[in-house]
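Encode chain A's predicted structure.
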Amino acid sequence: MNTTANKITIFRIILIPVFLVLAYMGQSLAALVVYIIACLSDMADGYIARHYNQISNFGKFMDPLADKVLVLAAMCFFIENGQMPGWAVVIVLFREFAVSGLRLIAVEQQRVIAAGWSGKIKTACTMVGLCAMLAFPASTIISAVTTWVIVITTLYSGIEYFYVNRDVFKNAD
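Encoded structure for chain A:
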């Protein structure tokens, strides 16, 4: 847990409540800056972990969890502000729970399922879109486009994830 990559992940987790406090206080620019820093830290810790061989079980667990909590925190804020419909978050949560369940079944079979490119694209589109919504809170067009991009990339990556790994179910009890 003492690796640089893990410290960056912990830093991202600490930024989540800071982002929320700023957002709820109406400090839009400061909230946006904190959110961008948190998003960039995701790229930094992943690069450092791979490049400097700092991959750890802590990082494998906490890095994706930190990403999900960061994104869902922003989405919940936008739901409260009327910028995003709640059903979009339900789709995101359903995909995350379903993929986590698939991974658990695969682990029982001594198999690790790596993240696919569509999931990375989904994460990038989601983070960029949420940054745009923070930057332009009054834009209903940006909110609508972001919501649909999140929903479409989430559904696509989830379907692809299950299709590529469908053989996991053939071996399940």
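Residues 140-164 form the longest helix (25 residues).
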